[in-house]
Design a protein that fits this description.
The protein has 299 residues and is an alpha/beta fold. 47% of the residues lie in helices and 12% in strands. Zinc ion binds next to strand 1.
Length: 299
Amino acid sequence: MKQIQSFLTYFGFVYSLFHAAVSTASGTDLDIIGKGADTLPLFDAHMHYKSAAWYPYPPNDVVSIMDKNGVAMALVSSSPDEGTIALWKYAPNRIVPEMRPYTDYIGPMEWTKVEGIGEYIEQRVRQYPHEGIGEFHVHEVDKSDEPLMKTIVALAMKKSLPLHVHSDREPIEYLYSLDPGLTIIWAHAGMVEPADVVESMMARYPTLYADTSYRETDILAEGDGIDPKWRQVLERFSDRFMVGSDTWVNDQWMDYDELIADNRRWLAHLTKETAHKIAYQNAERLFNRKISSQLFGTR
Ligand SMILES: [Zn+2]
């Protein structure tokens, strides 16, 4: 009897091996990263270090929060720019600085109307090793802003810097009309634009990238799934998406663990190849960095 039992156990074991091999070989889910998403090193392509965060989250805490969440590197812009520079000085190997034209008093609504703002951006880009211009808002195409937009576009082209733009579809089309050679990171993948609009924009502009901050709930379907339209656009343009947290208020810092966990939840539904690209490889290429878990604990 004991022999029969152990034979059956053995048979069951062999059968389960066989079954696993068959379902792996024939399944279309062969390349889905699944739990592997939990250990991907991440590039956070939408981090802010605003003045309100400086006291509760000093630079060493920010880097600890990144370490704890497996975030190897971040693209940082701040209001004012001094926040970005302070963080970059503390952890130059972890922070990619970009020039945000805001201060404590100048923000999304009025920045384009401030006298001397173009010169201010040029001066900060000359002074510090900024690797992008943004994140800035363009709420609508306003012809009276055209001289400023042309100044920013010319600077971006001259220095080979991507623009990081928070807008819906039309301002992106407008900026590309000023210079089709631009590289643009579309903040929040258009924020309110649905997946099919994002897909058509990506198809139309081969140098359009996007960060997915604030789109977690759009991408994640009910339960623990992924929205099929978002999966389609993420897989089709896997070379041009990056994840992001958008720490624009301290609540986002408080929720940072949860935000990063949400991003890993949708990454888990993508193919291995796509998940690695969106997690960090696209940023490696865009910013010419090497990103890996070797960076944790360093600065
Ligand atoms: Zn932002």
